Amino acid sequence: MKIYVCVKRVPHTAARIRPAPGEGGFPSRSIQTDGIEFTISPYDEIALAEAVRLKEAAGAGEVTAVSLGDDSSAVILRAALAAGADAAIHLVAPLPAGLELDGYQVATALAGLLRERDFDLLLFGRLAVDDQSSQIGTMTARLLGVPSVAEVVKVEPRDGRVRFHHLIDGRVEVVDCGLPAAATARKGLAEPRYPSIKQILTAKKKPIETIAASIVEPVLEVVALEPPPPRRPGKIVGEGVAAVPELVRLLRQEAKVI
Questions:
Q1: Which one, of 54, 47, 61, lies nearest residue 1 by Cα?
Q2: pLDDT one-digit tens code per residue, 155-195
Q3: pLDDT exceeding 70 applies to what percent of the chain?
Q4: What ranges do the domains of the chain cover?
Q5: Sheet of 87-92: strands edge to edge?
Q6: Nearest to residue 143, comparing CAs of 103, 166, 185, 112?
Q7: Residue 53: left (phi > 0), alpha (psi -120 to 50), or beta?
Q8: Which CATH superfamily is domain 2-212 in?
Q9: What pLDDT is stored for residue 74 in this prediction?
Q10: What is the Rg, in whole angstroms, of the alpha carbon atoms belonging to the chain?
Q11: C-beta atoms surrounding 149 within 10 Å
C-alpha cells in the first residue's frame, strides 16, 4: 500500500503568538516568527503514525511525507522520516509563517502534486493548529476526485478497499469505500512515535525530493490579524443565596450567556 501523508510546519502549541507589525500603516497580516519553535502539526503527527502502523501491519508498502512551505519545511520532513516515513517530498513555496495561503491554494498545490503520483491512501490531520481551517484534506480529496472521510478514529484496509470509522454527532459511523481514498485523522487514531537517536541520524542522510509548488490565485483574503481582547477581571457579587439574583442579572445583561 502506498500512503501519502501531508504534514504542515506550525508554531509549537506552547509558543506565544504575536502579530507581526503591519506595513505602511496597514494592519498585520502575519505573525512574528523570531524566537518561535516550529514543529509538525499534532494531528498530522497522528496521521503519520497511523500510516506507519498500517504499513507495518501489512508487512509491505511505502509511506511518503509531503509538506508545502519554504526551506524551513525540510526540518519537519526530516522529523517525519525519523518517525517512520520512507520518503519525503518538499513542495517549495515562500511561506515563512505558514499562514500566507488560503485553504484553496494549499489544496490545489497538493492536488497538483498528488495527481501525478500513484497512491492508495491519503492521510491528513483533521486540522492544522495554526489556522484551524479543517478543510485541506477534504478539499484536496475533492480536487483529486477520490472519496474522503473526516474525523477518522480507525482505519481498516481490506482487499482493495478501506473501512473508516469516524465520529459524527456523538456516535461512530463506519464508511466502506474503494481505494484510492483519503481521510483526516483525529486524536485517538494512533499514538505519535518518538524516534530514537539512530532514527534521527539516519533520517538526516535520506534524500528529500524538492518540487516547485504551483500556486493559484487566492479566493480568500486575510484582512488583519490581532490578538484576542484581554479577559476581563472576575467580579464578586455577594455570598450565599442572596447573591443569586444579582449573578443571574449579570449573566443575562452583561455576559449575555443566558
A1: 61
A2: 999 888 999 999 888 899 999 999 999 999 999 999 998 89
A3: 99
A4: 2-212, 231-258
A5: 171-178, 161-168, 148-158, 181-185, 121-125, 2-6, 62-69, 87-92, 209-212
A6: 112
A7: alpha
A8: HUPs (3.40.50.620)
A9: 94
A10: 22
A11: 23
